[in-house]
Amino acid sequence: MATVYRNGTVPKGALKVDRPLSMNSTSKSSSFKSKNSGPAPASGIRRKSTGSVANSAASTKDATSVSGRVRVAVRLRPRNAEEMVADADFADCVELQPELKRLKLRRNNWDSDTYEFDEVLTEFSSQKRVYEVVAKPVVESVLDGYNGTVMAYGQTGTGKTYTLGRLGEEDTADRGIMVRAMEDILAEITPANDSVSVSYFQLYMESIQDLLDPVNDNISIVEDHKTGDVSVPGATAVDIRDQKSFLELLRLGEAHRFAANTKLNTESSRSHAILMVHVERSVKGRDSAISSENGSTSHTAKAFKPPVVRKSKLVVVDLAGSERIDKSGSEAHTLEEAKSINLSLSALGKCINALAENSAHVPVRDSKLTRLLRDSFGGTARTSLVITIGPSPRHRGETASTIMFGQRAMKVENMLKIKEEFDYKSLSRRLEIQLDKQIAEHERQQKGFQDEIERIAQEAQIRITEAEKGYAEALERERLQYQKDYMDAISKLEEQWAENKQKHENEKAKSSMLSASMEVAELKKKFENETLLRKAAEEEIDNLKNQVAQWKRSEAAGNSEILKLRKMLEDEACQKAKLEEEIAVLQSQLLQLSFEADETRRSLDRGGTVKLPGTLDSPIPPFMHQHLGDSGDGEKASMAKLFEQVGLSKILSLLESEDADVQIHAVKVVANLAAEEANQEKIVKAGGLNSLLTLLRSSNDETIHRVAAGAIANLAMNETNQELIMSHGGISLLSVTAAKAEDPQTLRMVAGAIANLCGNEKLQAKLRGEGGVKALLGMVRCRHPDVLAQVARGIANFAKCESRAYTQGSKTGKSLLIEDGTLPWIVQNANNEASPIRRHIELALCHLAQHEVNAKDMLKAGALWELVRISRDCSRDDIRTLAYRTLTSSPSFQAELKRQRIDYG
Known about the structure:
Structural class: alpha+beta
Organism: Nicotiana tabacum
Protein name: Kinesin-like protein KIN-UB
């Protein structure tokens, strides 16, 4: 049997991590310590480790060294289904005493061997309990700076991978040690100062292969001769910032791991999987200041003390199961894999035996597995081993071998050491940055000093120039002022002399002319006063004349306006009387026409024939035209006669009547007229579509909603009208009406209107955005077959238009129907008893399945089996052929059919 990856494929490319990983968890305020978190003390040190940890000083090495024994826990797997049947008459070969940390292995019915372990975990122990007693102390030591190893050993099928690598996607309680360990590490680190990187690889047939980059399949092991550390630098290392990215890496790695079907396990791991987590943490509070020459510690030296970094490593090893060839049924390539697994496990057992017996030679180079685990057994890492066993007496030999492996491992002593070092690179970068800042600051200050000197010199020169200029100007002003004062004094003396001379001459003439001039001036003043009074009187008379003429003109204009208003009132009264008479006639005609339509409908019902296709109460969709009988032709004639006599505009005006009965009859007439394609354009041009949408918005009457929705459904059969309905918010109104309606006939009309709009591929995005698809899905609550048939038709129309858009290349994403949650209902009703529902749903399912982007969701919803049924049992040849072509052309469907071992070619 050939070995394959867990995802069934062979890797072809390397993993690429392009997006940044963010930290979701915050650091805990309390210390991450438990009662048993410290390294377990031992009575003595067996021997020194070959490796060493690089620390800041030689004295620190001794201070951080702690002796720690390998801790071993045993975990019992419950009986599986096969053992329930095969071993029903036999007791378990294992008896646990968890309170005493003992295990009894039965030799026969009356004798047994007793073994003690650090922890004994029953078949009822939870994953959380296993993590806390096995791995949590190791994780805490890793966070404190020690290396740590957690390993699972046991027979094939006893639960090693379940214990270590379970992701817990369905139930978080099932999370294994890998997931829980990373949760605790991420919760303790600080993203700004600490870092976590992960490598995940497998040891397969003595070849190290990268599970995150399957192309990298021959990785070398590197040993540091100074420290003894073992590393795998060729493996992909990914920085981790949150738990989600770590789960994605584990999921990717598990998909690439080799597995095969054996008699002992249907999905047996054929390789040793190793998860290597590197943790770097900055240590705060350490006094590592740099002293000056005189022994004192300067302020600058304290500011630039080198930070201390603790580097630790957590290794989680999921060993492949030990197995006997005759029991596992391995053959061909699987047989070679089993031999390689048993050889590497045998080499590991020899190393542990040598360490347990204090042998001078430990054969760590016999296998790549032992080289990788050199630090875990007899090295500097804190190691915790969980051995997994089964209860079946048929596998007592394998169980005993596993128990003895654990007993020998408990005798191995490790020397735990913290790896600390100064982060000189970080300090150097900080010093370089600070030096650059100081140089730039010095240059800036020097330039500022030079600029300041130049500025002061320029200001001094400007001030000297201004002072000299001011002094010269002041002297000139003072000279000019003195000269002006001198000239003014001479002018005043000359004027005064002339004045005195003139005054003397005037006094002589003044005495004779004074009396005559006074009389003339008085007479002139009186004459001017009389002239002003006469002009004022004349102006007052002119103003009065103008006011009188204006009043006469205003009175004449008012009389003529009053006459015009009286005439207009008389005309309005006559027009109102005529309109009231016309409205009365229209109401009587509408009532008569409604009565005739009801009588015709009742007579057709009694006669066993279908109702008129144009009426809104008909169970047949209003947009489906059929040939009418004699009674239908009579009603059409009545409609045409009313249409010719009254006129469309007057019928539409009745839609705004305050009388509810008049509105109902008027909307019925409009709906019947809209059933004829010849009338639809006239109705839309006359504003009938707007009136119908207004009725849906404003009216609360169920009958009006039903009839108006039917009329809109008739109008929605035309592509131009569909665009008008969408532009006027028709989908929103229809969706609100569908949410409020309870009557099946009303829901049928609304579903029919939306179904017609779904057939226009230009309007799909807007229709879905305004809630059209969700409105269709909401109407299935009615469960009436006619309503469900219209919903199915709308979904089929929508899927058909989407399929056409995929083909033309205008759409690439997932189907809008799937995003709005219609896929479960489609799959549920794909085999509905009603043929109209089933036919439309089958067609919609085939259109959705034609495009690979929808395949993943359809597989989850179970649509694959409905497509298989349609391709075999559908009554329509075209749908059956379409389903068959879709199944054979889809890679995802073909892969699932092959996985289910269904031959469908």
